[in-house]
Design a protein that fits this description.
The complex is a heterodimer of chains A (about 250) and B (about 260). Chain A is an all-alpha fold and about 250 residues long. Chain A has 9 helices and no strands. The N and C termini of chain A lie close together (about 10 Å). Helices cover about 35% and strands about 25% of the residues of chain B. The longest helix of chain B is centred in the C-terminal third of the chain and has 18 residues, at about 175-190. In chain B, the strands form 2 sheets. Chain B has a 6-stranded mixed beta sheet, with helices on both faces. In chain B, strands 2-1-4-5 form a 4-stranded antiparallel beta sheet, with helices on one face. Chain B folds into 2 domains: about 10-85 and about 160-255, P-loop containing nucleotide triphosphate hydrolases (Rossmann fold); about 95-160, no CATH class. In chain B, helix 3 packs across helix 4 (about 145-155) and helix 6 (about 200-210) crosses helix 7. Classes of the chains: A mainly alpha (about 250), B alpha/beta (about 260). The interface of A and B includes residues 158 and 167 of A. Chain B: Keywords: ATP-binding, Nucleotide-binding, Transport.
Amino acid sequence: MHERGYIKKTAATAASIAFLLLGWELLAVMLASPALPRPLPAFITFVREIPAGLWRHFLISSYRVVLSILLSLALALPCGMVLGREERFDRLAAPLVYLVYPVPKIVFLPVLMVLLGIGDISKIALITLVIFFQILVPIRDAARGINAGVINSVKSLGAGRWDIYKHVVWPAVLPEMLTALRVASGTAIAVLFFSETIVSQEGLGYYLLDAWSRYAYREMFAGIIAMGLLGFIIYMALDYLERRLCPWKFV
Amino acid sequence: MINLAGNKLMVNVENLSVSYRQQRKEVPALRGVSFAIPRGGTCALIGPSGCGKSTLLYVLSGLLGSFSGRVLVDDEPVQPLRRQTALILQDYGLLPWKKVFDNVGLGLDIRGINGRERTARVQRVLLEVGLWEMRDRYPSQLSGGQRQRVAIARALALEPDLLLMDEPFSSLDALTREKLQKQLLDIWQKKRMTVVLVTHSIEEAIFLGQIIIVLSEHPGRVVDIVENPRVGEPGYRKTPEFHALTTVLREKLIP
């Protein structure tokens, strides 16, 4: 049964990729402009560019994005669970969260660069700053929304505060956490692109902007494909994690 | 009479009042409630919805600590986390992310009972309620009646001497309900723990409660305490006395 589900899912993925490529092909043929190369030449360029240096940009960007996601998760997960369950902390933190949440944090890049330099750390800090809130808020709300009856039942079994976190809160927020991570990974790549276009010599953002400035549109699209691939890999990893961490959702 | 002289009391409630705050107003939930349940007896709490039946159960479990009056469980003032008290709430309180086996073992995990002892106890109670074959399923894969039995098994795994149940069978279909009522009776007759259950079904109260406490409309007060010593006799449900008692209770509840 699992086998069949897997085949079905792979087929669906293949179909959506085919659909995307077909749309791209049609649009490129209709526009007939060098600014939008057709998919096949773009992919040929992508394959040629990989050994020529694209792989290095890809790895650097992957490293920055993945580390940022892990870092913001490590910070947001405990904070979100505690804020969702302990009302007195949330009363203190909520105004702060709502004040900072809507501020476009990419404007802090110059400040971060002054503080942390123009290398990896300022970029990772920026991405972490942005997606921290995108992960924190859903986890907090999921923790807050746990059915009081479940909590009381587990309490009646003799559970202390720690047992409640271990047996109830943590598994209850897992599905929300993974959903939040999916949304956040998209944001993370967008912020990564921005941060890599400013005073940067490496990473997919730099590669893309560099190609753009040289009117090398095929290379630019090779960069776009690489970015899409990065997002796709993260998405697949999250899918895999969900199957491992939330098996009760797949029965 | 079931209220045997000299028999130790398991639950002794004297002049219990509870109120809760709602929008800065004190709303009384229970007022001046007194009753006693002997060790090993069963008691049904019945009354109109919103009369504070569930509140009373929360007080007995120790989860609700703010009340006035005296509540003794096994001769001690009621306290949270009394190890021999088990509580089963209306929606069963099963964790969707744990398999049947681990849901049943949860109370043991929390009490630090693990390894072979845990496995043995979980197996024993699951066999008792007839769900050993379902041990690897998640709650979402079970029927309502099966979930209720898992909740009962989880309570039994703690080897309680006081079992509190909040409308345990109310969301089940009639056939399953009768089957489970019978099963609960069997378990009680075998183990003789004290059972207190909240119900809004007159039939269920008479079938299961040696003592039936009738509560009034909000705020809950004791209208009457009916003794019902024939609980557990084979075929009791079909006797004229059973039906006569139904009428008596109905008149007390709907005067």
